[in-house]
Design a protein that fits this description.
- By secondary structure, the protein is of the alpha+beta class.
- The protein has one domain.
- The strands form 2 sheets. Strands 1-2-3 form a 3-stranded antiparallel sheet, with helices on one face. A two-stranded antiparallel ribbon has the order 4-5.
- α4 runs antiparallel to α5.
- The chain is globular.
Length: 119
């Protein structure tokens, strides 16, 4: 829970709006009780900012463990906050494994866009 709280605080410090993805519930004020519920229920936290910037904080992922993602992650720094970002290959594997409609649509679009970029 501590990492989720640190993550939320770092995103709020960047003036990002936080919400639960499933319900769109706003996270302007998040108590320890609310954060425990987020962690327990593995809710997706969505951070959004102007100009279409959206960051999803995932507490579970299909096809890989967080240890595997962490091992392959790139590390970025924002001030004194260290941000670990999973590799694109891991994200794509997770989407293929999950097999949800939205993941299939994403993979189809990604394949089309990536092909255009490499042509």
């Amino acid at each position: 829970m501590d990492n989720v709280k640190k993550c939320c605080e770092a995103l709020k410090s960047l003036d990002m709006n936080l919400s639960f993805k499933e319900a769109g519930e706003n996270l302007k004020k998040y108590s320890d009780k609310a954060l425990r519920s987020i962690v327990r229920d593995r809710k997706v936290i969505v951070a959004s900012a102007p100009y279409g910037i959206v960051i999803e904080i995932l507490l579970e992922i299909s096809g890989l463990t967080f240890s595997e993602i962490n091992r392959n992650a790139r590390v970025f720094n924002s001030g004194d906050v260290q941000i670990r970002v999973g590799r694109l290959e891991d994200l794509l594997l997770s989407k293929r494994t999950a097999g949800r409609k939205k993941d299939k649509l994403f993979l189809k679009r990604f394949k089309t866009e990536f092909k255009q970029e490499t042509d």
